[in-house]
Design brief:
This protein has 221 residues and is α/β, with parallel strands linked by helices. It is globular and about 45 Å long. It has seven helices and nine strands; from the N terminus they run H-E-H-E-H-E-H-E-E-E-H-E-H-H-E-E. The longest helix has 18 residues. It has one domain: Rossmann fold. The N terminus is likely disordered. The strands form two sheets. Strands 3-2-1-4-7-9-8 form a seven-stranded mixed sheet, sandwiched between helices. The structure holds S-adenosylmethionine (SAM). The site of S-adenosylmethionine has 20 residues, from helix 2, strand 2 and helix 4.
């Protein structure tokens, strides 16, 4: 097994390490739904999975990905893809490394809110989803606007002002369990949520944002 890199960045690597150590999934097909130019997170995905589908809305970004192993690049709006009723591929693991704040045409998307539930439907045997959560969004230097704050309130409900790990864990668990209960095809409504801090306060960083690993179904036995 390859060593975990860049421990200082924590989060993503720790989550992958956790999955690998516990062999919670058979590492086969992964989706990097917001691949970018193939930065460190996509590279780690390529190192960890046999087959990776890298999606990005920008072809120029996908073209600059250094290909290694089995990677298939698809230029598309990945939120539209995940929402489409014709899933052509299912995945063992989905990584949502979406842009911050509002984005897309008419700023209609907000962070991972529009693709989390659709992503659940594209998991083989259900499985894990990893998503990045800004736990202190109003302290970031990003442009704040009413639309964005409104989306946050709607998604996180009463805990939007107190985005502690405990509160966020409950929100993700509730949202996904409610969705699974509606589905007639899923076998399990079990959801386990684990948080991996991205910044280490020990290293002097003031922010502690999180990668949330959402284990859907009975993958954590
Ligand atoms: C945070 S970056 C991804 C970084 C990348 N995962 C890495 O490892 O370095 C977000 C990416 O989302 C892409 N993006 C924005 N809207 C999108 C959409 N609707 N569908 C697919 N990709 C989108 C952007 O082009 C950008 O490359």
């Amino acid at each position: 097994m390859k060593p975990v890199k860049e421990m200082r960045c924590g989060g993503f690597y720790d989550a992958i390490w956790y999955l690998k150590n516990r062999t919670l999934i058979e590492f086969d097909n992964a989706l990097g739904a917001f691949a970018g130019v193939g930065g460190f997170r996509l590279r780690q995905l390529m190192e960890s999975f046999d087959n990776v589908v890298a999606m990005d809305i920008r072809q120029d970004y996908l073209s600059s990905i250094t290909k290694s192993g089995s990677i298939y690049c698809k230029c598309c709006d990945s939120i539209e893809y995940l929402n489409s009723s014709f899933p052509s591929i299912n995945f063992d693991f989905i990584h949502l490394d979406n842009p911050f704040g509002l984005f897309g045409p008419d700023s209609k998307y907000c962070e991972h809110f529009d693709c989390l539930i659709p992503a659940v439907k594209h998991l083989t045997n259900l499985g894990p989803i990893l998503t990045y959560v800004i736990s202190s969004p109003y302290e970031h230097d990003e442009p704040r606007n009413a639309g964005w704050i409104d989306r946050h309130r709607k998604f996180y409900g009463e805990c939007y002002e107190s985005m502690t790990v405990e509160n966020l864990t409950k929100v993700y668990q509730r949202i996904i369990e409610e969705e699974l209960k509606k589905s007639t095809s899923v076998r399990s409504t079990q959801v386990t949520v684990k948080a991996f801090p991205r910044y280490s306060k020990d290293c002097g960083d003031s922010l502690t944002d999180y990668y949330f690993l959402i284990l859907v179904g009975d993958c954590e036995k």
